[in-house]
What we know:
Elements: E1 8-11, E2 15-20, E3 23-28, E4 33-37, H1 38-47, E5 52-53, H2 54-64, H3 69-85, E6 89-92
Antiparallel strand pairs: 1-5, 1-6, 2-3, 3-4
Protein name: Lasso peptide biosynthesis PqqD family chaperone
Organism: Paenibacillus artemisiicola
InterPro entries: PQQD, PqqD_sf
Amino acid sequence: MTISKNETVVQTKGNLASNMNGEMVMFRIESGKYFNIGRIGGRIWSLIESPITVEALITELTSEFEVTEEACEAEVVNFLEKMAKEQLIVVQAVS
Length: 95
């Protein structure tokens, strides 16, 4: 799955998340899998609690962290694609 900047992403239901010493750890109830998504992954997770476009997510993260928009986009899209593969997020095309 390829995710573009104009798509909207949101957390799926059925995940437990906990902050462990500044790093976000998640448990997917359906699959029984654990994920350590780290500090920045945890920030992304909190931002996608409500539906948000990938573009708005990138804008928010570049304002919070010292990263170029291009690098941020590459990392965020890669992260979101992995999360989508594990069914941790729902990706919706903007209509």
